[in-house]
Amino acid sequence: MSSSKLLKGSLATIVLRLLEEQEKMYGYEITQKVKQLTEGEFKITEGALYPTLHKLEAEGYLTTETQLVDGRVRKYYSLTKEGNAEAKAKVSELEEFLANLQKVLNPKLGLG
Amino acid sequence: MSSSKLLKGSLATIVLRLLEEQEKMYGYEITQKVKQLTEGEFKITEGALYPTLHKLEAEGYLTTETQLVDGRVRKYYSLTKEGNAEAKAKVSELEEFLANLQKVLNPKLGLG
DNA sequence: CAAGTATACATAATTTTCTTATGTATAAGA
DNA sequence: TCTTATACATAAGAAAATTATGTATACTTG
Question: Which stretches make up the Transcription regulator PadR N-terminal domain (chains A, B) (predicted)?
Answer without folding.
Answer: 15-88
